[in-house]
Design goal:
By secondary structure, this protein is mainly α. Helices cover about 55% and strands about 10% of the residues. The chain contains ten helices and five strands; from the N terminus they run αβββββααααααααα. It has a three-stranded antiparallel β-sheet. A two-stranded antiparallel ribbon has the order 3-4. Strand 3 and strand 4 form a beta hairpin. Helix 5 crosses helix 6 and helix 7 packs across helix 10. The radius of gyration is 26 Å and the shape is elongated. It starts with a helix and ends with a helix.
Length: about 200
Amino acid sequence: TKAELQALTASDVDTEAGTITISKTYHRKYGVEMITTPKTPKANRTITIPKFLCAALQEYINKIYQPDADTRIFPYSHSCYTDAFRSHTKKAGVKPIRLHGLRHSHASLLIELGFSVLLISERLGHENVSTTLNIYAHLFPSKQSEVAEKLDLLQTNNAIYYQNLTTEQRKTQETPINKAFPGFSIEILRISVFLYNFITFKI
């Protein structure tokens, strides 16, 4: 969030480890600057960041005049960052969004890349996974069809594999799958074939 961003200090960013630690928020009330703890325990978190972001942050921090561990690295008002962001999106020809929208864009990208809702929830600092699902549930349905397709493919491959087994292999259960996956029962294949034939009216 913007409050977390503006509270970040030089010591919160570890470019060697590739992490950012979020442990406080910044607020300005009646002209008085305040640093407070996050609203919820889960909002206290350490997240990993990619190498390109580490390099960009280190270059940025190096430009700050004599920073110490408690120096806020984003000390300007929210409007300054909003204006700069608006200017850059315009130059890049990108559809304008709010600065806070980058948080949602990040979450949406992680969902598209296939990361779990639990990991995304931890990264965003949500207290409960249900909060993440309430906000981003509409982005997950497309994965349901993918699940069905993969189960169909598994079933088809199981049926083909079982049909190609020799009689001796079916009796002794000495199959490549047994050798590759100890404990894998040939009964799983038999049940899969039975269900497939039953559902497709072949029995």
